UniProtKB/TrEMBL annotation:
Residues 204-232 are annotated as: Disordered. Keywords: Cytoplasm, rRNA processing, Transferase. It comes from freshwater metagenome. NCBIfam families: rsmG_gidB. This is Unannotated protein. One of its GO terms (cellular component) is cytosol. SUPFAM superfamilies: S-adenosyl-L-methionine-dependent methyltransferases. InterPro entries: rRNA_ssu_MeTfrase_G, SAM-dependent_MTases_sf. PANTHER family: S-ADENOSYL-L-METHIONINE-DEPENDENT METHYLTRANSFERASES SUPERFAMILY PROTEIN. One of its GO terms (molecular function) is rRNA (guanine-N7-)-methyltransferase activity. Pfam families: GidB. Gene3D superfamilies: Vaccinia Virus protein VP39. CDD domains: AdoMet_MTases.
């Protein structure tokens, strides 16, 4: 899964995960024995769904999974790690500097990049439910690109749960695939979502772009005042 000249870098990265990553709480102590199969190789197979030379953003990158692994496995990619927490971005910057790989680390929430940046592929791993995750990631997806979210074996059920919601926001039908099947003992289940039409830089704009006749009509409560906790 890795070029021969990159294997030493991957081993060094695993050393970071087992050492500082565990000490700083980015990796659980019980995960150390499973770093290769459960985390590193599990992330590397995402490359099956990433085209050559793509610009990739990894949202909520944490310890660099899957974004940094993709950068090590695929030198052709332009990778940006997006993470809001200082201790995690500090770790990522230290690792990137030590490995001397051309990976950008951005301390921010995904929403802060909406309208400012776009990518061919936006990845994530165990960050949030699919509907909320799409609201963060899809506005960063460029024309012809896709969100690729690593999920568990229940990925298909999650897609069915949120399929209509995603479609209302202007996405194409989600795809579910077992990445690394025949290579890994336990394949990585992932969901791929792309835009059905032109990309939207705001999830709300994508939702409100529906024809007026299709928008839900709000009825004021008696007396002309709206009630309820979420009323405006």
């Amino acid at each position: 899964m890795f070029p021969p000249d990159r294997l030493a870098l991957v081993e060094r990265y695993v050393g970071w995960l087992a050492g500082a990553g565990t000490e700083r709480g980015l990796i659980g102590p019980r995960e150390v024995a499973r770093l290769w199969d459960r985390h590193v190789l599990n992330s590397a197979v995402v490359g099956e769904w990433v085209p050559e030379g793509a610009r990739v953003a990894d949202i909520g990158s944490g310890a660099g999974l899957p974004g940094l692994v993709l950068a090590l496995a695929r030198p052709d990619l332009e990778v940006t790690l997006v993470e809001p927490l200082l201790r995690r971005t500090t770790f990522l910057r230290e690792v990137v500097a030590d490995l001397d790989v051309p990976v950008r680390v951005v301390r921010a929430r995904a929403e802060e990049l909406h309208g400012a940046e776009s990518f061919d592929v936006v990845t994530s791993r165990a960050v949030a439910p699919l509907d909320r995750l799409a609201g963060w990631c899809m506005p960063l997806v460029a024309a012809g690109g896709a969100m690729v979210a690593l999920k568990g074996s229940s990925a298909a059920d999650e897609v069915e749960l949120h399929r209509e919601e995603l479609a209302r926001h202007g996405t194409d039908a989600p795809e579910v695939r077992a990445l690394g099947a025949g290579v890994l003992a336990s394949p990585t289940w992932a969901v791929r979502v792309s835009w059905a039409g032109s990309p939207q830089v705001s999830w709300r704009l994508a939702r409100d772009a529906r024809p007026r006749g299709q928008r839900a009509q709000r009825r004021p409560s008696p007396g002309g005042r709206r009630r309820g906790k979420g009323s405006r």
